[in-house]
Write a structure and sequence with these properties.
InterPro entries: Cholesterol_7-desaturase, VanA_C_cat. It comes from Advenella faeciporci. Keywords: Oxidoreductase. GO terms for molecular function: oxidoreductase activity. This protein is of the alpha+beta class. It has two domains: 63 residues, N-terminal domain of TfIIb, CATH 2.20.25; 199 residues, Naphthalene 1,2-dioxygenase Alpha Subunit, Chain A, domain 1 (Alpha-Beta Complex), CATH 3.90.380.10. The protein is 17% helix and 36% strand. The protein contains five helices and 18 strands. Strands 8, 9, 10, 11, 12, 13, 14, 15 and 16 form a nine-stranded antiparallel β-sheet that branches. Strand 13 and strand 14 form a beta hairpin. The longest helix has 19 residues. The radius of gyration is 19 Å and the shape is globular. The two termini are 31 Å apart. The relative contact order is 0.18.
Length: 287
């Protein structure tokens, strides 16, 4: 990707955020990588001392960088402290990440799809859902410490994890930490009293094109890291067919543009939460 800039006024609530550009298993020391963030060309990498850096290509100005949650973060603005995820510090968990995936959709669309349990039997049949178990039970959506939570979610899954055979009801808790970052806490079939953690960190390349970074902190100690990674990668791959074909590619904040049901409570709350924050980057505006 070249280093040709895009001039665009972006609201501070979007500009002043940390964004992922890679997970820790990806960069090779001494190699420069090029990507795009909020329409701006970025160069990043690990220097000869394995220290992470990022540069805005147009100006050659060094950008704020951060390494946390098995992820390398960059900001084009003045970001606050990054949200905390205690699970990444627990010794019993196995930390890994999928390969970054490009999506032809707004990063906000990607987060909304992540929050949607209703599509499990239709898009992820045989793993996260199956017929005739299509009903989404009522769940709670609330704001806590300026983050969005969806709690008490539950869904029957025939293969909820790579190392578990047979179906079971899986408890779901979603946490949206920032407009482009969300977490999923779901029942670990091998340790039902605890929950695995799946992160969805979205890099908005521009308003309708994104890169998905997905680090995880699993409790599964029986499967290989590669098997766990491929299992989650296959599920993400199934979502691509939906995400790449949504119209419009940007996320409509007005609910009357699309039909919603009770199962869409988290999506509606997410859109309202974005609207209250003043997010317009990546959203669909009526002509």
């Amino acid at each position: 990707m070249g280093c040709e800039g895009v001039n665009m006024k972006i609201e501070s609530v979007v500009l002043d955020q940390w964004y992922p550009v890679a997970t820790e298993n990806m960069p090779v020391a001494g190699k420069a990588y090029h990507t795009q963030l909020l329409g701006q060309p970025i160069e990043y990498g690990l220097d000869e001392n394995a220290a992470f850096y990022a540069i805005q290509c147009n100006t050659r100005v060094r950008l704020p960088v951060f390494r946390q949650h098995y992820t390398y973060w960059v900001s084009l603005g003045n970001p606050p402290a990054l949200f905390d995820i205690p699970e990444f510090h627990e010794a019993e968990r196995r930390v890994l990440a999928t390969v970054p995936v490009c999506v032809r959709a707004s990063g906000l669309r990607v987060i909304e799809n992540f929050l949607d349990m209703a599509h499990f039997p239709f898009v992820h049949e045989g793993t996260l859902g199956e017929m005739p178990y299509t009903a989404v039970k009522p769940y709670r959506v609330e704001i806590e410490n300026d983050e969005l939570y969806a709690r008490d979610g539950e869904f029957y899954q025939p293969m909820a994890a790579f190392s578990h055979e047979g179906g079971m009801n899986i408890a779901y808790i979603y946490r949206v930490c920032s407009p482009f970052s969300a977490l999923l806490y779901k029942t670990c079939p091998l340790q039902p009293a605890k929950k695995d953690l799946v992160c969805l960190f979205v890099q908005p390349c521009d308003e309708d094109r994104s890169i998905v970074h997905m680090p995880m902190a699993y409790l599964d100690d029986s499967a290989s890291l590669e098997d766990l990674r491929l299992f989650r990668q296959s599920i993400l791959g199934q979502d691509l067919a939906i995400l790449n074909n949504q119209v419009p590619r940007k996320l409509p904040l007005l609910s009357d543009l699309e039909i919603s049901t009770g199962a869409d409570a988290s999506s509606l709350a997410y859109r309202h939460w974005l609207s209250e924050k003043g997010v317009s980057y990546g959203t669909f505006q009526n002509p």
